[in-house]
Design brief:
With 263 residues, the chain is of the alpha/beta class. It is built from eight helices and ten strands. Helix 3 (102-118) crosses helix 4 and helix 5 crosses helix 6 (177-183).
Length: 263
């Protein structure tokens, strides 16, 4: 029973595969990228150049399942809005080496931010971060713990603490909470460091009908953040939800533009 429970908790956070859901050449100009994490693990990424002169660059942290070739559809429209997009796979996902772990993904997230900031075709002073679900947790911890500054952070359906989400996986009851504490740690939980990101603007999206991450988790993360910050409750069922409707896509672009002071 304990082994099944452990597997269930780990499975909540890491569901990688190496299937190619979409070809890179389906996105005009998309480039294959390889870079190394802190421990030398080789990671795979795609760089999607903006159409025309770039306004800025969005570093995209995808959610817990599959790999970047399935998640890229959440952001492949941003180049038409004037943004470069850098999307990468954590270790164990897609073509990236290694196996996923909490510390490993944290180091991969830091490496991705470092790599993008040093690219010759990117203005390192005009970086934006967009994270969905687990990706939002990774992005927030990377920024909050390292002190690295970007122009804006958008979070979509992201949780506050790992133990809280682990408890959801095993029933979400107060009776199961001690077991979640036994099986998991809160290391690199986004709510523990998000306040350090201030005064970088933060925009949070969440659905009250999220079937994966309860909105109470999203509200707790937002509450822990410093100003300026916004919380958008999206009126649809789903996970994630920030790019499912045109109105929310427009809100996301407006937020990015405001962070870059683009009229």
């Amino acid at each position: 029973m304990l082994a099944v429970t452990v597997k269930g908790c780990n499975g909540l956070f890491y569901h990688p595969d190496s299937h190619r859901y979409r070809a890179r050449n389906s996105i005009p100009g998309a480039q294959d990228v390889t870079f190394a994490s802190k421990d030398g693990t080789k990671l795979h990424a795609w760089f999607l150049p903006a159409m025309g002169k770039p306004i800025g660059t969005v570093v995209y942290f995808h959610g817990n399942a599959q790999n970047l070739t399935s998640h890229v559809s959440f952001v492949d429209w941003l180049p038409a809005e004037g943004f470069n997009v850098f999307t990468f796979d954590y270790r164990g996902y897609g073509q990236s080496e290694g196996s996923p772990s909490r510390q490993g993904l944290h180091e991969d997230s830091l490496a991705a931010l470092e790599h993008v900031s040093q690219r010759a075709d990117v203005d390192g002073d005009r970086l934006l971060v967009f994270g969905q679900s687990l990706g939002g947790a990774c992005a927030t911890a990377a920024l909050g713990e390292s002190g690295r500054k970007v122009r804006g952070l958008a979070l979509d359906s992201t949780f506050a603490h790992y133990i809280g989400m682990g408890n959801e996986a095993i029933g979400g009851l107060w009776l199961t909470y001690p077991l979640a504490w036994l099986l998991l740690s809160n290391s690199h939980s986004p709510a523990d460091s998000i306040a350090s990101i201030a005064p970088t603007p933060i925009l949070c999206f969440h659905s009250a009908k999220d079937p994966v991450v309860p909105i109470v988790q999203g509200r707790a993360l937002h509450a822990a953040a410093g100003e300026p910050k916004q919380f958008v409750e999206v009126a649809i069922y789903g996970h994630p939800v920030a790019t499912t409707m045109q109105s929310e896509r427009e809100r996301l672009v407006q937020f990015f533009n405001s962070c870059l002071r683009v009229e």
